[in-house]
Automatic annotation (TrEMBL):
Pathway: Cofactor biosynthesis; ubiquinone biosynthesis [regulation]. It comes from Ancylobacter tetraedralis. PANTHER family: CHAPERONE-ACTIVITY OF BC1 COMPLEX CABC1 -RELATED, PROTEIN ACTIVITY OF BC1 COMPLEX KINASE 7, CHLOROPLASTIC. This is Ubiquinone biosynthesis protein. Residues 94-342 form the ABC1 atypical kinase-like domain. Keywords: Cell inner membrane, Cell membrane, Membrane, Transmembrane, Transmembrane helix, Ubiquinone, Ubiquinone biosynthesis. It holds the Pfam family ABC1. Signal peptide: none annotated.
Amino acid sequence: MATPLGDFLRLARAGYVLAREGVFTRIDPALMPPGSEPLFAAARLIARPGTTGDPARIGVALSRLGPSYVKLGQFLATRPDVVGPQLARDLELLQDRMPPFPQDVAEAIIARNFDRPALGVYARLGPPLAAASIAQVHQGEIEQADGTVRRVAVKVLRPDVQRRFRIDLSSFYRVARLGERASPEGRRLRLIAVVDTLARSMSMEMDLRLEAAALAELAQNTQGEEDFRVPTVDWDRTGREVLTTEWIDGIKLNDLDGLRAAGHDLPEMGRIVMQSFLRHALRDGFFHADMHPGNLFVDPQGRLVAVDCGIMGRLGKKERRFLAEILYGFITRNWLRVAQVHFEAGYVPAHHSIEDFAQAIRAIGEPIHSRPADQISMAKLLTLLFEVTALFDMKTRPELLLLQKTMVVVEGVARALDPHLDMWKTAEPVVRTWIERNLGPAARLEEVAEGVGALGRSLQALPELIAQGQRIAAQIDSATRNGLALAPETMEAIGRAEGRGNRWTTLALWVIAALLAGHLLF
């Protein structure tokens, strides 16, 4: 169980490991609270020789601290406003790779989940092929009823990872609470809400049945798409700590030479990556939020295959509209509309001027549009937006964090496939289709139809509402015909309280009496 002392000791150890690996030398001192200069000077003295200024050391430090810190680092890579642009860029290089745990431990976890030995669940279970902070993946084989063998991917949760995460999470919350109490900027950044989002994401990622459900939902949403798919789930061999899916025979998206040798069109794959993400986010409000190259394959049919759906993002209609109108505003250079969307969504406080905010948006957008297509960066755009929103008191929107993170990752993947990819031109068809479908005349007709339907349902319920009103009126008439009567016990208690002069007890008892009277009335 986490305690304040335990949190302090764990944070002290984390601080020492980060200082030892030279991480604090990468932090912009201007982002730190006043009076922290001696701490940074001490951190430089602790740093291991040769680590100062090396961006790779943060990955070493976080890996030493364990799975929770690796996930925290990946999460903070999306928040240059919190950790500074330099450290955010360093964190983008962080790879979610951990040493594998032993084969016999994996087999014991499988046996515990299915109440039978691992080799009773699978005909064969190979050694771990990839190990990350939450789980590791094995290749397995299943013998079918007709005697044929089917290959499967078997994902097994790390032992004790849930307990470790709960303990580390307590430390993260303690830092977030301290940051919000000590700094107005910490409150604007909503540090506690940031940790809340991380906690929800990690909790879902550590129940592999939820990942299986996410795969099934994404498969259902994309069943009509010809260029994107996800592996099917073997539900008979899936539990809380074990997930079994079909084995994907494909080429990883970061194997550019392999893709070229197989005859795949790399710029076309870059377009598919970008448009698939936008289509899922806008059309479905449900998207793969961990689209790094290790989770993306190209199958022999040229389709993009996404695996590892442990981290998924959801957007409500309000957030989808916000995303679509922001992107469309930048595509069409309608800066005033971009500003209006922020205000309509309630993301910028109403006391600010829309025109001033539009001017700030223009300062971001015009330089981007004046550059060649291959120099336009959504990651850069998001960084600049963070700076502007700070000027206009815009608080962190936890529901948009995963979206922002995924946009940056998807851009990096698409750029690797096609360095000359025009982001706006690629995004425009998907965004325009959503705008026309959801904000155009057809959408208005649907809204009218929904309104008529709601009115019809209300009219259907009207007789019952009238009857209920008549019953309430009859009860009130019956209760008040001879006056309201309080129970003798209540009156005696009120008298005793008045005799003792206990004003607060008297008030409480009168409140109780009033509630009893209300109960009689209704």
